[in-house]
Amino acid sequence: MSTAGLAQFTIEGTIDLDGSTPSLIHVKRIDYPALQLGSWQEEILVDQKGRFIWDTEAGDGLFELVAPPWSWMVWVRPEEPAVLRLGSGAFSARSLLGSLGKSVWIGDHPSQWMDSLIRYQRRANRLRAEFLLSRGSGVNVQAGDSLAQLNAVLDSTFESMWSQAAGKCASEWERDLLWQIKLNEALNSGQSDVLLDSLWRSSSMGNPNRTWASRLASPGAYSGWRLIYGGWWLESQVDWNRLKEAVFSADIDSLALAMGGRWKDVDRAEMAAAWLDKAIDQPDDLVRLVWKTFSFPDSLVAAYKAMRDFRKIGRSGHDIGDLPWTLPNGDLSSLREQCQQPWTIILALKNGSGLARRERGVFYQVSENLDRRDVCWVVLSLDENQENWRETVSSRLTSDETMVWVGNNPRVMESLGLVVVPQVIVLDENGKIAGSKVPLPSEGLERRLRALLPR
Q1: CA-wise closest residue to 110 among 86, 78, 88, 87
Q2: Whole-model pTM?
Q3: Domain-ending residue, one of 255, 284, 312
Q4: What is the pLDDT of residues 272-284, one digit of tens each?
Q5: In contact, 327 and 404? CB cutoff 8 Å
Q6: How far is CA 16 from CA 80, 115, 289, in A?
C-alpha cells in the first residue's frame, strides 16, 4: 500500500508497562538524530493485550516511540523482519516525559550486536577503573600486571568483536554506528588526538565525499564527529576577543584563525558543524551572531534553525496554537472555543496525586480572589484513561469549574512545557506562554498573577 506516493510496510510488536497497557503509542520520526529533533507522526493503536501493528514508511528511519512517561528510540530498516517488544525501563519514571524504556527486536537486527559491543565497553571500562583503584589504594597486584597489559587484552578482544560485527554491516547507517562505537572505545582507552583523527578519516563517517546532510541524518555520523572534534571552545587556543572581532567584521578567515588549531584549515561546512556543536552544548549570543552573520551550507543551517525553533517550544513566548480537548460530558472542544477571554490560566494535573488535589483547591480560591473577567481558568487533566479521567471529574469542586481532558499526550506536554504535575501555565492575550517557572497556587500564584495580568 502507499500513502502520498511513499511505500509503507508493517511492523508487529507488543508493549508491556509493568502490567498496564496504553491504548496509544505516539510516534516521532527523528530527522536529526544527534540533535534528538523530529516530527510527530500518526499514532500507533494498541489492543487490550498490548499488541500493535505499526505501518511506517519504507527505508531506514530512527523513531522515538512514546507512551508517557516512557519512551524508546528504535531504528527501523527497510522491510524490517523483526518483531518489536517495548517495556518499562530499569529505573522508576521520575517525570511526565523522557523516561527511557527497554526495547528489544526479536529477530535479526543490528541492535543485537551493537548492544553486545556496548556491554563489552562498559565491562572493559569497569575493569580499567577497578585496576586503577586497586593500585591507587595500595592493594598488591601481581608483578607482571600493568595497565598497558590490561588494555592490550581488552583492546584485542574488542577488535575481534568489532571485526565480526563489521562483517554483518549491510547499510551506511550500520557502518556509521559501528564506527561511532569504535571511536568511543578509542576515547575511553586514552588514545591520542592523532590516532582519533586518523580513525575518523578512515571511517565510513569521515569519507571526504560524504555530505553533511547525510551525516546529520545518520544516527551515528555527526555524533561520531562530535566525539572527536566537539567541545573545541573549551581549548586554550581559542582567542575570544578575535572571535568577536571576526563576527563584527564578518570575516570568515579571521573567525577560523580565532578558533585556533585545526579550524583554520577546514572548509566552511565543517566550521558550521563546529558552531552547531557549540549551539548544542553552549548556546550564547556569540553563537547566535555567528549563524546570523556567516553564510553556511543549507543542510547545517536547516539543522541549526530546527534546533533553535524546538528550544522555543514550551517556553516563554511560545505560541501553542489551538488545543483540542474533551469536556466532562464527552463533547469535543478546544482552547479557542472554550476560552473566549484574552488570558488563560491552566492547572495541569493527574488523578492520584495528593499534591495536585490540594493545589486544585487553592487554584479555585485564587480564581475567586482575583475575580477577573478577562481570565479563563482551566483544570487540564493528563489522565491516561477514561477511568482516571472520571475520577478527576468526580472530584470537581463546582459546576462552574472549567475542566478538560487531553489524555496522556506528549505533544500537549511538549507544547505547554509540562514536566511535572501539578504545574501552572499562563497564556497571554496572544495565546503565548507568559513567563516561566510560574509558582503553584499554594506557593504564590496569586501574587505573581497580580503582577503579570493587565491592571
Answers
A1: 78
A2: 0.89
A3: 312
A4: 999 999 999 999 9
A5: yes
A6: 21, 21, 47
